[in-house]
Amino acid sequence: MEMMSAGAITTPATQRWQARATSVKEIEQELSRIWSEAAREIRDAGVGAHQRAEAMGDPRLSGLMNEFDDVRVRTRTSVLTLVVVASRPETAERAMDAVNHLASRHPSRAIILAPGDPDGPATVDAQIFANCRLSDSGASETCTEEILVRTGGELMQHLTGVVAPLLIHDLPVVLWWPDDPPIGSRPFRELTETSDRLLVDSGAFREDGAKRLTGLAAVVADGQTVRDIGWMRLTLWRELLAGLFDHPLLLPELSAIKTLRIDISQPGDIFRITKAALFCGWLAATLGWELAEPMGRQAGDDSLRGVLRRGRNLIRVEFRPVSPGGDRALRSPGSIARVELELGRGRHDIRARVTRQADHLLGTADWDGARVNRRAGRLEAFGEAPFVAEALDKSAHDRTFETALAHAARLIGR
C-alpha cells in the first residue's frame, strides 16, 4: 500500500497536517515530509536574529535551511515523548483528547499504541497528526505531533520495535498505560525498560486490583519512577483527614487510633480495593504502623478485615462494600465513599471522618458526640488530563506514594 501524502489544514491560529502510513519506516518518512513542508512554507518571511537562532536550534527545521534564511519561527517545543498503550478504542480516544488538552502546557511527541487482533497478520496502520499553534504574540509557533499506531499480529508482543525508532533523541520517555497494565508480561517489561517514567491508574485495575497493586509495588522496588492517577485522586482525602488533627484536642490522640473503616463503592460484582489500600498504606507509613494480620474475608461476611500494629496498640482495619445508590459520583467500582477513624484513650469516644458528597468531601471530628472540627473541599473533575499534566510536571520519585504502596501491598497480602 502506498503512503498517503501529508495534507495541511489551516485556521487563523493553527495549522494541522495529517498523513497515514503502513510501516514504521513510512511513519518516519511522513514526519520528515511534514516538517519539510513546514520549513518551505515559512521561507522568506522576515524574522529577527533571535528568532532565527531559535529556528536553527530546532532539529527538525535546522537541517532544511541555513542561517541566512529569513523565516518565521516554527519551533518544536517537545519536552518529552509520551507513549500511550490504549487497549480499547475508547481508551485511544480518551488518550488523544488528553494529549490535545496538554499540548500547550506539555508539548510532546505523543505515540498512542492501539493493539488489535493478536491472531491476525502483523500490520501497522498509523495516523499522523502534526500541529503548529501561533504564540500570543504571533511571532512564533509551537509545533507538536500525535501518532496513532494500530498494530496487529505478532507486533503486539514487540511494541518496542514500533516505539523505539520514533523516540526523540535525548528527551525523556513517559509511558502511560491508562487501563489495566499487564504487569509482568513481555510487552510491559520491554516498554518500561525503554521509558524513564510510568503512569498508571490503579483505580482502573481489573477485578479487585490486588494482584496488579502488588505487581506495581514490585516495579517500584526495582527502581522505576511511577505515578498513579488513583493515588493522586486521594490527595484531597488525605489533606482533609490530616487537617482535622490540627485541633489541639485531637493531635495527641493520633497514637490511640483503634479502628480504621473505609466504605468502598460496589455498584456491581466488583469489589475493588486499590484506593482504600493505598489510603490505608499512607496512614500506616505516616503513623508508623506495621502489619499484624493481612486483609481477609470471613465466611458470610462481605467486608475485608485486617490488623495493623503500632507498638502494643492494635489498629483494626475494615474495608466495607456499599451501594452507590443514586450518587453518580460513586458509580465507579472502588470509589471511596467514607473514611472513619475511631480513637481515643480512656472513656472518650473520638471519631474523625471524611465523607464524599457528590463532588465535595466533608471532614468532621467529634469528641464524645460534640463537633470539634470541620473541613470541606471540592474534588477535581473526573477527566484524566489534569492528573496526567501533574504527572508530567514531576520527574522525581514520589517517596510518599512509594512508601504507601509498599505498605498497601503488604496489607492486602497477595
Write a structural description.
- With 414 residues, the chain is an alpha/beta fold.
- It folds into two domains: 4-195, no CATH class; 232-386 and 396-412, 2-Layer Sandwich (Dihydrodipicolinate Reductase, domain 2), CATH 3.30.360.
- 28% of the residues lie in helices and 33% in strands.
- The protein has eleven helices and 18 strands.
- Strands 1, 2, 3, 4, 5, 6, 7, 8, 9 and 10 form a ten-stranded mixed sheet that branches.
- Helix 3 (89-102) links the parallel strand 4 (80-85) and strand 5.
- Helix 9 (274-287) packs across helix 11 (399-412).
- The longest helix has 18 residues, at 24-41.
- The two termini are 49 Å apart.
- The model is unreliable at 1-5 and 64-75 (pLDDT under 50).
Would you kindly provide a brief summary of this structure?
The chain is α/β, with parallel strands linked by helices and 414 residues long. It contains 11 helices and 18 strands.
In whole angstroms, how far apart are the ends? 49 Å
Number of DSSP-assigned strands: 18
Counted up, domains total: 2
The percent range for helix content is: 25-40%
